[in-house]
Write a structure and sequence with these properties.
Blueprint: E1 2-6, E2 9-15, E3 23-27, H1 31-42, E4 46-50, E5 62-63, E6 70-71, E7 76-78, H2 87-93, E8 97-101, E9 115-118, H3 127-150, H4 157-167, H5 175-192, H6 213-217, E10 231-234, H7 239-246, E11 250-252, E12 257-262, E13 267-271, E14 275-279, E15 281-284, H8 288-292, E16 297-299, H9 304-312, E17 313-316, E18 318-324, E19 335-338, E20 347-351, H10 352-356, E21 360-366, H11 367-374, H12 378-392, E22 401-404, E23 417-420, H13 428-433, E24 439-441, H14 455-476, E25 483-484, E26 502-503
Parallel strand pairs: 2-14, 3-4, 3-15, 4-11, 9-19, 12-16, 15-24
Antiparallel strand pairs: 1-2, 5-6, 7-10, 8-10, 12-13, 13-14, 17-23, 18-21, 18-22, 19-20, 20-21, 25-26
Helix pairs in contact: 1-7, 1-14, 3-4, 3-5
Bound molecules: flavin-adenine dinucleotide.
Organism: Salix dunnii
Cofactor: FAD
GO biological process, one term: polyamine catabolic process
Length: about 500
């Protein structure tokens, strides 16, 4: 440790890893940062991971206060197949998945027969209507593709839907069926964590769109581009993966990064209390919300193209209210939904009892509604959810305990996941992902083409950033002449891993 003056700012202490090995600072202890740190650590780099919270996992947060695991952030694995980059880890740890749907489309991440919809008066919506409106919704989305082809200017998905309904009055729904259509739109909005009037028609199903809702839904014949295997809930929560990745990494919790100075040969990262860390390179995996809010100062300033990339993407909100009851009073289905005249007013509950055997319902809200829900304190939020539940089940008992998330205002996330804003260039993710000197960018918002917004996408982006960083450092420091490299592709538990980098 030493003291120094950095550009006029007093840095209280500087930690310079005492290492002859290449050194990397990873910023953010979510799945992306942990994947990057793990990869570099296993490749014999000296790694320090700085995390602002007092826990690891970021938007993966498995809570145990009910006495068993409940995921308050991510809970599904999308793409239950061997090609999923998380598959080796899940298999290696022996984690159980409860498959909610074998369908690869996002709309049907739960099989239709596994959920039950109610109207606001608590009457069950006939299942036949749910299926018919679902089919109509698919056709509407198909038709929006034609609208896009006809227009050079971008528009919102909602505008495109309204054009389609003008052209095809037979797809319009009336009365209760209209409310079911709104429910489908509500479910779709959850995938972008944003309302349909905010989502770009141009980009939403393009290669750089968030988890490719329409790739999955409409372009089902192009399934080779997306992971197959449907969707599964992580029965023990995502937490064991976080713990496994974090093993033996030098992790500093409660270290909120305030400044990153990118020098020609070194990077200096300064945390809130003034402590500085110096390394050969840094990998930044903080959520897009943090970058958007300029909570980290960059020295030199980020170039305009990077600033534009950050502002060209939206960062939406989704919140969960998990409720533990003393006994189950709801039907044995996976999903319980309330339909309404607007998607804003629709709602749904995940029945965790089905997957885990525990009497827990998780209410989920996305987009503007999620923002509005965050304005309520815990008790009114829980009361609101209970009022929804009581519409369906007038005899619902009060919860024993509940947990309320506020991902949108949490200073460590400031949102949930990213989406393409209307009218912005479609290459925002690529620009966001591009390295800057000794800085590398991972994280959910800069993940591989078709996996934004997912845990496995964030994991892949961390691995990618680590690989790019590794190559950069080794080339810059001339280590390629001195080191024997084993090819770096491969999963953590594959035979090819860990990388063997040995000095000659
Ligand atoms: C409610 C919700 C439900 C979701 N559901 C699913 C799902 O079912 N399936 C799925 O695949 N995906 C889901 N996701 C998305 C998934 O959780 C994310 O894509 C993924 O976890 C992001 O990982 P990450 O490492 O990129 O970011 P994060 O997990 O956000 O990690 C970034 C880390 O950076 C830290 N940090 C922030 N600022 C600083 C700073 N200044 N200094 C140091 N550290 C800092 C944060 O505390 C955080 O730990 C969901 C997300 C949410 C919020």
């Amino acid at each position: 440790m030493e003291n120094l003056i950095d550009n006029g700012t007093f840095i209280s202490q500087v930690e310079r890893p005492n290492s002859s090995l290449p050194t990397v600072i990873v910023i953010g202890g979510g799945i992306s940062g942990l994947a990057a740190a793990r990869r570099l650590n296993d490749a014999s780099f000296k790694v320090i991971l700085l995390e602002s919270r007092d826990r690891l996992g970021g938007r993966i947060h498995t809570d145990h206060s009910f006495g068993y695991p409940v995921d308050l952030g991510a809970s599904w694995l999308h793409g239950v197949c061997n090609e999923n980059p998380l598959a080796p880890l899940i298999r290696g740890l022996g984690l159980k998945l409860y498959r909610t749907s074998g369908d690869n489309s996002v709309l049907y991440d739960h099989d239709l027969e596994s959920y039950t919809l109610f109207d606001k008066e608590g009457h069950k919506v006939p299942q036949q209507m749910v299926i018919e409106v679902g089919d109509a919704f698919k056709r509407i989305l198909d038709e929006t593709e034609k609208v896009r082809d006809e227009h050079t200017d971008d528009m919102s998905v909602l505008q495109a839907v309204s054009i389609v309904l003008d052209r095809h009055p037979e797809l319009r729904q009336e009365g209760l069926a209209y409310e079911v259509l709104q429910w489908y739109i509500c479910r779709m909005e959850a995938w972008f964590a944003a309302d349909a009037d905010m989502i770009s028609l141009k980009s939403w199903d393009q290669a750089s769109g968030l988890f490719d809702f329409l790739h999955l839904l409409v372009l089902l014949d192009m399934q080779e581009q997306v992971l197959s295997g449907g969707h599964g809930l992580m029965v023990q929560g995502y937490d064991p993966i976080i713990k496994a990745l974090a093993k033996d990494i030098d992790i500093r919790l409660n270290h909120r990064v305030a400044k990153i100075s990118n020098g020609p040969n070194k990077v200096m990262v300064t945390v809130e209390d003034g402590t500085g860390f110096i390394a050969d390179a840094a990998i930044i995996t903080v959520p897009l919300g943090i970058l958007k809010a300029n909570l980290i100062q960059f020295e030199p300033k980020l170039p305009q193209w990077k600033v534009d990339a950050i502002s060209d993407l939206g960062f939406g909100s989704e919140n969960k209210i998990a409720m533990q009851f003393d006994k189950v009073f709801w039907p044995d289905v996976e999903f319980l939904g309330v339909v309404a005249p607007t998607s804003y007013a629709c709602g749904y509950f995940l029945n965790l009892h089905k997957a885990t055997g525990h009497p827990v319902l998780v209410y989920m809200a996305a987009g503007r509604f999620a923002h509005d829900l965050e304005k309520l304190s815990d008790e009114p939020a829980a009361n609101f959810v209970m009022s929804q539940l009581k519409k369906m089940f007038p005899n619902a008992t009060e919860p024993v305990q509940y947990l309320v998330t506020r991902w949108g205002t949490d200073p460590n996330s400031l949102g949930c996941y990213s989406y393409d804003l209307v009218g912005k260039p479609g290459d925002s993710y690529e620009r966001l992902r591009a390295p800057l000197g000794n800085l590398f960018f991972g994280g959910e918002a800069v993940s591989m083409e078709d996996h934004q917004g997912s845990v496995h996408g964030a994991y892949s982006s961390g691995i990618m950033a680590a690989e790019n960083c590794q190559t950069h450092i080794l080339e810059r420091l001339g280590y390629f002449d001195k080191l024997q490299l084993v090819p770096s592709r491969g999963e953590i538990h594959d035979a090819a891993f860990p990388l063997q980098i040995s000095r000659m």
